[in-house]
Design goal:
The protein is an all-beta fold. The protein is about 0% helix and about 55% strand. It contains no helices and 11 strands. The protein has strands at about 1-5, 10-15, 20-25, 35-40, 45-50, 55-60, 65-70, 75-80, 90-100, 105, 110-115. Strands 2, 4, 5, 6, 9, 10 and 11 form a 7-stranded mixed beta sheet that branches. A 4-stranded antiparallel beta sheet has the order 1-3-8-7, with no helix packed on it. β5 (about 45-50) and β6 (about 55-60) form a beta hairpin. It starts with a strand and ends with a strand. The mean pLDDT is about 95.
């Protein structure tokens, strides 16, 4: 089992910044991919950013150049630095952990609200 705990959400004005954190614990494989998803009211959950064990990253087009995903030195923590936030970034943000052997695990989500 893997547990994911997210933190760092909140209310920010448009143009501001937030940094989300996700700490993974439990039976962690060294080969894994960690992702951030988000879900806005009335919309489907969408992939925001991902980072694999080799630190290769990819991003949704809507956040490229504004968001940065990274891992901490302990490798079991992932961050999402969000800059130049827009009202359309408002959503619940979820951390996801996955490997080819275990399937996916999800955090409880953290609310990000961007006011105009």
């Amino acid at each position: 089992q893997v547990q994911l705990v997210e933190s760092g959400g909140g209310l920010v004005q448009a143009g501001g910044s937030l940094r989300l954190s996700c700490a993974a614990s439990g039976s962690i494989f060294s080969i894994n991919t960690m992702r951030w998803y988000r879900q806005a009211p009335g919309k489907q959950r969408e992939l925001v950013a991902a980072i694999n064990s080799g630190d290769v990253t990819n991003y949704a087009d809507s956040v490229k150049g504004r968001f940065t995903i990274s891992r901490g030195s302990a490798r079991n923590t992932v961050y999402l630095q969000m800059n130049s936030l827009k009202p359309e970034d408002t959503a619940v943000y979820y951390c996801n952990y996955g490997t080819p052997w275990t399937g996916d695990y999800w955090g409880q989500g953290t609310q990000v609200t961007v006011s105009s």
